[in-house]
Amino acid sequence: MKILVTGGLGFIGSHTVVALQNKGYEVIVIDNLSNSSLKVIEGITNITSITPDFYKLDLRDKLDVNEFFKSHQDISGVIHFAASKAVGESVKNPLLYYENNLAALTYLLQNIVKLPHQNIIFSSSCTVYGEADQLPISEDASIKSAISPYGNTKQIGEEIILDTCKAFGKLKAISLRYFNPIGAHPSAEIGELPLGTPQNLVPYITQTAIGMRDHLSVFGDDYPTNDGTCIRDYIHVMDLAEAHVVALERLMSSKTDTNFEIFNLGTGIGSSVLEVVNAFENASGEKLNYSIVDRRAGDVVAAYADTEKANKIMGWKAKRSLEQALKDAWAWEKSLTEK
What we know:
By secondary structure, the protein is α/β, with parallel strands linked by helices. It has helices at residues 11-22, 39-48, 62-70, 87-92, 94-112, 149-167, 201-210, 237-252, 273-284, 308-314, 322-336, and strands spanning 2-6, 26-31, 53-56, 75-80, 119-125, 172-178, 180-182, 216-219, 231-232, 234-236, 260-265, 271-272, 290-293, 302-303.
């Protein structure tokens, strides 16, 4: 079966391509290389001994998207990662985010509904929950007003897919709401490659430990948590990648009672920023230089997943530990200095 992965050279996308190829799927990758590198293809090939078909294509170009699908009518499923994802950047440049994340999704769906096999997995986010009223956060939690244009594109993206599923009965979709993906493939062939200053905690930690950054800033230690720092649910990227394969197979096997489902993807365990710092020091043997600074606008106090629905209905469960994810992230960071 041919599976299209948009944004397939990005962090989560590349690991999902590996998971798909390891399960025997033929993978086609679309990426515009705006936040990724062609070198990722080499890493995927080194891991799986298979080179995925690659098309450099910008999904905002409607004519190019239409032309691509005209010659790829045999695609059995689409996993849609391609999107801009930096919260701060989205606040400064909202129109870029609405164009890149929503127009592209629209053009993609316009073509998927013409295919013989109409299956899509949507890359969503726990940001749709905002500051949740109850922890852990289940899929039934209320959707709060988005605190950033990025978060809003995830909410609207889900609504676009739901409306399209209602209008086109053959279209089946699963939206996967990620918590905090970290780590790298254990081979250190692929991993997270942020452009410029990292927006996420773990790559900032590893870059500080390797000497690229002077120190790590911990934003606030006066939150109502055990150690005063924010709590998040950190999931190994390979657990996340494997969940996409499980979700795709659920769609293609027609096990669903409805044509649109939502699942949280996390570990169900909340870890504070300082707990992650300590776990990294234990996993790497490196002492981390960090300092406490003022709170960062927009940060919620705590967010971790209720994973019961994904565990029971999809039959998927995260199996890798925080320490393993940090060990793999550190191995990846060290490998970058050798490449």
